Amino acid sequence: MADDELSRAMTLTWRDLSKVIPWGDTFEGVSPAGRDVEVERNYLWAAQEGGDILCEVAVYGGASRYDQGARARGVISRR
Description:
By secondary structure, the chain is α+β, with helices and mostly antiparallel strands. It has helices spanning about 1-10, 15, and strands spanning about 25-30, 35-45, 55-60, 70-75.
């Protein structure tokens, strides 16, 4: 589910994201197995401000299970 959410998160353009970095959101969802989960997306500068954007996604079963959640990350290139 983290990989699937990452593919959606990576559809945002560098141009649009560069206006709001750093930015993130968390929302409730249902996993493919039918479990209630929280999905967190974060967008940060990968190295230096104005460069590539790091996109991080975490899917976890509530705040107490954050460390056991699934994670995925990708880079949205400035080019």
